[in-house]
Amino acid sequence: MTKMMKAIGFKEHLPIEKENSLVEFKMPKPIAKGHDLLVKVAAVSVNPVDTGVRKSGHSTLKIPKVIGWDAVGTVVSVGEEASLFGKGDPVFYAGSFKRSGSNSECQLVDERIVGHAPTKLTIAQAAAMPLTSLTAWEALFEQLEIDPAKQKSNRNKTILIINGSGGVGSIATQLAHWAGLKVIASASRSETIKWVIDHGADQVVNHRKDLVEEVRNLGYHYVDYILELNDLDGHWNEMAELIKPSGRIASITENRRPINLHKLTQKRAKFAWEWMYTKSFYQTSDMISQHNILDQISKLLDQGIIKSTLNKILFPINVSNLKKAHKLVESNHMVGKVVINYSGI
Ligand SMILES: NC(=O)c1ccc[n+]([C@@H]2O[C@H](COP(=O)([O-])OP(=O)(O)OC[C@H]3O[C@@H](n4cnc5c(N)ncnc54)[C@H](OP(=O)(O)O)[C@@H]3O)[C@@H](O)[C@H]2O)c1
User: Fold this and answer.
1) Residue 221, pLDDT score
2) Among 120, 133, 231, 293, which one is least packed by beta carbons within 10 Å?
3) C-alpha 332 – ligand 1 centre gap (Å)
4) pLDDT of 62-76, one tens digit each?
5) In angstroms, what is the span from residue 27 Cα to ligand 1's centroid?
C-alpha cells in the first residue's frame, strides 16, 4: 500500500492573507531512484522565489503544488545510482525549480545538488544557507569570475553589492570579504546598515539615494565589480556609470523593461546573469558543482570563516507559520533569512 505524508501547497495563486493561499494536504511518499535521495525534512527557509511562484498564475491547479526550496534534513533512502550520501546522513540543499518542493515531510532531491550539512550549526542556522549561498558563490566566483584563491591581488579590487542586507547579500558580502575584496554594500536603514557591517561590508552606501554620488563620496570613481541583488531596472544607469572600464557586472534579478547594454560599449564592461537553478534545470554536465559548493560552504561555516545569515525562526512547520514567513519575505525588507523548523532550534 502507498504510504502517505503531509505536505503544504496551493491550488490557487492567492494573496497570502487569503485562507487557501497555502493549505495542508496528504500526498504519496515518493521513492528514491537513480541519483535521488529521499530526505526527511527538518527545517526549511523561505525565499522570494517561494512567494513569486505562489503568486504568479491565474489557473486553478488540479492537485496542489508543493513549493519550498531551502531544506535541511536526513537521508532516509537512496536511489541505485547515488554514491555521495548514505542513509542517515544530515544534508542541506536548495532543490530544483522543476520538482516538488521542501514544504513536505519528505522530499526527493538529486544528490548532485546536495551538500553535507554543517556539523557545528543548529538545524535552523543551516537551513538559512543553501539557496542564497549557491547564488552568491556562482555569481561571484563563476559569473563575475573572481578567483577566491587570489586573496592578495583581490585586495586591490572593489565590489559594490546592491542589497547587502537581504538573504543573498548577507552571504555575498561575507564571501566577497573572504575572497579578499574591498566590499561596499548597500543598505538603507540603521538596522540594515549595522547588519551589513556585521556581515563583512567595509563600507556602506544607501540604495534609496543616488548610488553614483554615494560611491563617489566614499572616494571611488569606479568599482571593479558590481553584484546587483534587487531592482535591475532601477539601478542599471547607476551601475553603467560606476563600473570600471573592463569591469564586470552580474545580476540575479530580472529586468521588467529592456536594459540598455549600449551603455557598457565604450567601457567594454561585461554583464552576466546568475540563476541558481540553471544547472539542475538544464541538467548541465557541471551540475555536481553545486554539491561541491555546498560542501565548501559547510566547511567555511564549521570553521567560523562565514556565519549563518539566520535572523528569525518560526516553529513548528505548519500553514500558519509558513504564511508568516511568506509575508515577511514579501515585505521586501527582509534582513538575512527566516527559517521554519519542527523544533525551536
Ligand atoms: N537569480 C537567482 O538565482 C536568485 C536567487 C535568489 C534570489 N533571487 C532574487 O534576488 C532578489 C533578492 O533576493 P533576496 O533573497 O536577497 O531578497 P530579500 O532578502 O527579500 O531582500 C530584502 C532586502 O532588499 C533590500 N531592498 C529593497 N529594495 C531595494 C532596492 N530598490 N535596492 C536595493 N535593495 C533593496 C531591503 O533593504 P532595505 O530594507 O534597507 O531597503 C531588504 O533588506 C529577489 O528579487 C529574488 O527573487 C534570484
Assistant:
1) 98
2) 120
3) 7
4) 999 999 999 999 999
5) 33
